[in-house]
């Protein structure tokens, strides 16, 4: 009996020990599950990074190994690149050399254009100045020309300024052969006649009879006008001549018809000539 008790006691002790061991292992697993120790994964990650870094270095090492193992290939590639650069430089130099004369031509053309523009502007300025000068001279001469002076004696304003045709004594028969003709007989003396001719010029242009209007100045060798037997009186078809000048004679189809006169024995004016034109309905 005593031996059996001992065995039972021993067996019980073994059981207790087994329980303790199981309890301890449970505690250890519990401690692990509670997350107290996580250093191992970090070590593993660092190792992986180091592996990546070392693996990243491998390609460059491989390239250097390849380049070291093939120096001739590297030299030929470098030489080819240098040749390409030299060819490009030569092409650039040729292009620059070709462009230099073109640039010079463009610069020369620009200079020519600028010179031409300058010359044109100078010519235009000179022409403008000349035209202004001519305008001033013409205006000044007109102002002088339209004023009477002693230089007008023996000259007709109608002839000099209005360009009416002046005839001589022997030209009278041909001048009056038209359908309607007018002859202004004058001695072209004095300021009054000068002013009369200025007014007549306007009326002649208004009635459009310039081509049929003639000026006969009494300064030739056709005899006196106040007698009927002089050459001048005969050619003018005046039986008794003229007792007063200036006057305007009217002819139709080569025949003397009438003249511009005044009843007060004063010198005629442009109004007297207008009455003569209206009388014969010459518009």
The whole-angstrom Rg is 67 Å
CATH class of the domain at 157-279: Alpha Beta
Strand content: 5-15%
Tell how many strands the DSSP assignment holds. 5
**So, CATH architecture of the domain at 157-279?**
3-Layer(aba) Sandwich
Classified in CATH, the superfamily of the domain at 157-279 is Glutaredoxin
Shape designation: rod-shaped
Category by helix and strand content: alpha/beta
Oligomeric category: single chain
Strand order of the largest sheet: 1-3-2-4-5
**Terminus-to-terminus distance:** 186 Å
Mean of all residue-level pLDDT scores: 74
Helical percentage: 55-70%
What does the largest sheet look like? 5 strands, mixed
Annotation field: number of helices: 8
The CATH topology of the domain at 157-279 comes to: Glutaredoxin
Spans with pLDDT under 50 lasting ≥5 residues?
A: 1-57
**How do the SSEs run, as a string of H and E?**
HHHHEHEHEHEEH
Question: Please, could you describe this protein's structure?
Answer:
By secondary structure, the protein is α/β, with parallel strands linked by helices. Among the domains are: 74-145; 157-279, Glutaredoxin (3-Layer(aba) Sandwich), CATH 3.40.30. 63% of the residues lie in helices and 9% in strands. It has a 5-stranded mixed beta sheet with strand order 1-3-2-4-5, with no helix packed on it. The radius of gyration is 67 Å and the shape is rod-shaped. Mean pLDDT is 74; it is low at 1-57.
Brief summary:
The protein has 283 residues and is an alpha/beta fold. Helix content is 63%, strand content 9%.
């Amino acid at each position: 009996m005593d031996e059996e008790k001992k065995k039972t006691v021993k067996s019980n002790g073994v059981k207790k020990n087994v329980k303790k061991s199981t309890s301890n292992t449970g505690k250890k697993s519990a401690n692990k599950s509670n997350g107290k120790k996580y250093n191992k994964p970090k070590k593993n990650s660092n190792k992986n990074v180091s592996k990546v870094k070392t693996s990243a270095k491998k390609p460059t090492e491989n390239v250097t190994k390849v380049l070291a193992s093939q120096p001739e290939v590297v030299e030929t590639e470098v030489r080819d690149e240098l040749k390409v650069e030299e060819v490009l430089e030569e092409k650039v130099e040729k292009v620059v050399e070709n462009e230099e004369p073109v640039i010079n031509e463009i610069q020369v053309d620009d200079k020519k254009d600028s010179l031409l523009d300058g010359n044109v502007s100078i010519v235009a300025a000179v022409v403008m100045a000349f035209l202004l000068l001519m305008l001033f001279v013409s205006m000044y001469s007109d102002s002088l020309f339209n004023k009477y002076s002693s230089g007008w004696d023996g000259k007709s304003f109608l002839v000099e300024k209005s360009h009416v045709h002046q005839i001589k004594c022997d030209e009278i028969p041909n001048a009056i052969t038209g359908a309607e003709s007018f002859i202004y007989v004058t001695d072209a003396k004095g300021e009054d006649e000068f002013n009369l001719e200025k007014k007549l010029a306007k009326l002649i242009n208004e009635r459009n009879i310039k081509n049929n209007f003639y000026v006969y100045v009494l300064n030739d060798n056709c005899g006196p006008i106040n007698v009927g037997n002089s050459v001048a009186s005969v050619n003018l078809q005046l039986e008794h001549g003229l007792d007063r000048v200036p006057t305007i004679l009217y002819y139709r189809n080569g025949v003397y018809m009438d003249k511009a006169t005044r009843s007060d024995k004063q010198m005629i004016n442009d109004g007297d000539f207008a009455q003569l034109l209206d009388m014969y309905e010459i518009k």
